[in-house]
Amino acid sequence: MSAQRHHGLTEQAADTAIDPACRMLRLPTIRGQFPDLAEAAKRDQMSYKGFLAELLLAECDDRARRRSERRIKAAAFPREKSLRAFDFDANPNVDAATINTLATCEWVRKGQPLCLIGDSGTGKSHLLIALGTEAAMTGYRVRYTLATKLVNELVEAADERLLTKTIARYGRVDLLCIDE
């Protein structure tokens, strides 16, 4: 089934055609932002290419944002934590420069492990969740779990002869965050 193209559409016909076309092509951001961006393009006398680029970049940016949100949700963090919210002054033994270097996630790319060790109340869980969130926003698949939960899950999987499948599921993530 092919749709017949109409050249020289009126403004009203074009407006009517854009919504269903965006739905069919699964372009929700363009669909939602088109009226405002079209008005801005007209006001700023933007070229057709410039206008098209603005629409496509808005769609790409929104898709990247939604992918990050899905990865963060899939990580199953118990709460939201960020590096910006970490109080380095209250934790003088935590080096901000080192944490900022870790936030680049180069160590995740290289497959290097990271173990956060310290006394109770020093921010290990906060940093674990914040660094995991950074990794998810960078594009890595992340999973958060408690050590006790992981051990129990592996024991149950072994009892049910599903250990290989369970280990494989954890092996599909780029970063496994295990908290105490």
From TrEMBL:
<dbReference type="InterPro" id="IPR002611">
    <property type="entry name" value="IstB_ATP-bd"/>
</dbReference>
<protein>
    <recommendedName>
        <fullName>IstB-like ATP-binding domain-containing protein</fullName>
    </recommendedName>
</protein>
<dbReference type="InterPro" id="IPR020591">
    <property type="entry name" value="Chromosome_initiator_DnaA-like"/>
</dbReference>
<dbReference type="GO" id="GO:0005524">
    <property type="term" value="F:ATP binding"/>
</dbReference>
<dbReference type="InterPro" id="IPR027417">
    <property type="entry name" value="P-loop_NTPase"/>
</dbReference>
<dbReference type="GO" id="GO:0006260">
    <property type="term" value="P:DNA replication"/>
</dbReference>
<feature type="domain" description="IstB-like ATP-binding">
    <location>
        <begin position="24"/>
        <end position="180"/>
    </location>
</feature>
<dbReference type="Pfam" id="PF01695">
    <property type="entry name" value="IstB_IS21"/>
</dbReference>
